[in-house]
Amino acid sequence: MSKVYLVGAGPGDEGLITVKGLRLIQKADYIIYDRLINYNLLNEKKADAKIFYVGKEGMKSSWKQEAINDLLLKCASEEGKITVRLKGGDPLVFGRGSEEALFLKEHGIKSEIVPGISSSIGGLIYAGIPTTHRETSRSFHVFTGHTMDGPAELDWENLAHMEGTLIFLMAMSNIKTIANKLIAAGKDPDTKAAFIYKASRADQRSFTTTLKDAYECKTINNIKNPSVFVVGDVVQFAPEIDFFGDRPLKDRSFILLRKKEFNQDFKDFLIENKAEFIELETIKYTPIHDHGFDEALKNIEAYKYLILTSRNAVEFFFKRALELGIDFRRFANIKIASIGQKTMKDIETYGFKADYVSEKYTSDEMIKNITSKFEKGAKVLYPHSDKAKGNIRAALEAYDVDAFEIYKNSDEAYEKMYLEDRVYDIFFFSSSEAISFNKFYPELMSKARIYSIGPYTTKSIEAMGYKVYKEAKVHDSEGMIDLLKEEINYEK
Question: Is 56 a catalytic residue?
Fold first, then answer.
């Protein structure tokens, strides 16, 4: 039987989703997502899962609620399918989640709700503001600052005399009304207040003020939604508790283009520095089954040298060998040549050591310092991608070479995701990634700070008419991380 899960994704930081919510994303057949979720969560989906963007911004949306309801019904109509309705914050805190749950119930669809961290709590925490404090506030109260009909009509007399913290969501267009109403009803004009814009995101901003100056603060700083407005003495603790404001890479959002399993060291660095990033795999890598290559593996003892120029080549080479049941002891007399430390380490996971390692991550470097040292006339096995440059093959004319395309890379299956229109720092680890990203997101490419792993990738980027901001001195993942380390130290 099909089922719909209404899942809260939290305020923005991908790490704030619940374990249950993450597991459901990984199992879902359909994911219907909002604008304010962290898009890295979509990287956790199954390869064949379908995604639908139904985001809203303020009171404007290309998706009406009726259309979202119809989409929920359509997805849930397939027997045995799991649909995840992924919503920012908590699905039942001013998110119309309860309306969707009731709609599903009315139409006989089973549903379940998975809570998320609401920005009314998590947003304050990321600005160092506690919702409660034993000495100043023993309760907190959350209000909508806007309805479909305009400013929310609240019991201002009651609100003004509440002892606890007052928290307003979706209120930026009505700050003047809220402040004036509270003061008129008896709230101290000097009560501390704060705004938190885009809580837990790269461009989070927080502003402290007083109730009487709130509208001026909002206007001068051009504070927009999504923001939280908080009124209460708990705001005084922000300078002491804030842990997020001094992040070294704030205001910057990074895009990493390659297989996510290759990004772990980069992700660890960004997470450690409280940076926001998006992983995009516009290119999918799939094996090419070649009879000639299979025969080469079955006669592996015939080769003197094996050339593996990338981490993908390592993966597809050894996977195919295992599928064919090749005994790895038959590799004993083969010399392995690789490019870069990461490729070398991947080779080691299969129980082998590279005999030759090109420290610079370029095929020219391998030709210059490694293949030129091979014994003339020796038999060489060179498995590579369908997009491999021909320079290595050309440089091996003096050898008995069997070169095979063992995997292909293609962006034909990529489903374009909604990405916020802003300036991104984009890291390209290959020419094909740059070409593919430009195909789907030329409007973002044109304004991005572009980082390139090496000269070939830089050449491809420049050929498309873009300028490379920085190129790694060492052409591997560590070299790319070093570029950011230099920037952090420079900014300090």
Answer: yes
